[in-house]
Amino acid sequence: MPNQSDALDRMFQALADPSRRAVVQRLTRGPASVSELAKPLAMALPSVLQHLAMLEASGLIRSEKIGRVRTCSLEPKALRMVEHWVQARRAAWERRLDRLGAYLETEED
Asked: 3-state SS string over 39-82?
């Protein structure tokens, strides 16, 4: 599935930056205007807009302009894709560790 892989690559690249993760964290509480999102970040508004553009291009957020206010919100479907990917990796490692634990138990006897 190259399309899903490309989408995941973009999402993880977007989430690699602490400022973008802070924006995503804030948006878990609900939609927010660009100025609300920019307030706690120690950067100029154009930099914030670049971060928001990357989050939107990755599919993690969407924005809507009503009048002069641009409001951003999370895109739950994209977050679920990331969550499913992480859960699949966790399940694989848990199975491996369970097999290792069972093997070590047989060696102790």
From this structure: CCCCCCHHHHHHHHHHHHHHCCEEEEEECCEEEEEECHHHHHHH
